[in-house]
Amino acid sequence: MSLSLILSTKVRDKLALKHHVTEDEIIQCFANRAGRFLYDTREEHRTTPPTRWFISETDFGRRLKVVFIQQSDGIEIKTAYEPNETEVRIYQPYWSVDTR
User: Fold this and answer.
1) I need a labelling partner for 94 at 20 to 30 A (CA). Which of 44, 57, 67, 87 fits?
2) Does the residue 99 lie in any domain?
3) Domain that holds residue 52
4) How many other C-beta atoms are found inside a 10 Å radius of the C-beta of residue 48?
């Protein structure tokens, strides 16, 4: 799977230092995704194009929430981290939804 990920220096640093998430783990989550993308509809998080997110596992079973914006030149990663119980509960109904 070939993804063109866009990560700003600020996001890359936050992923490494705060969340201990690698770019490879994010790519694995996209490849292993078994549910659909959800939109972040909270007013303070609205963007154009819209912010999307999903929860998936890496090849080694680490569960991550990946937050991104689809751009014309790739996927701009906003953040990725281990989800809390509330986020897992919200995403649970969409986990095995057909992604086609």
Assistant:
1) 44
2) no
3) 5-94
4) 6
Is residue 100 scored above 70 in pLDDT?
no
Total structural domains within the chain: 1
Provide DSSP, the chain. Answer: ----EE--HHHHHHIIIII---HHHHHHHHHH--S--EE---GGG--SSPEEEEEEE-TTS-EEEEEEEEETTEEEEEEEE---HHHHHHHGGGTTS---
Whole-prediction pTM value?
0.89
2: Cβ contacts below 8 Å, ≥ 6 apart: none
Domain-embedded: residue 100: no
Classify residue 63: in a domain, yes or no. Answer: yes
Task: State pLDDT tens for residues 16-45.
Answer: 999 999 999 999 999 999 989 999 887 877
Indicate whether 9 belongs to any domain: yes
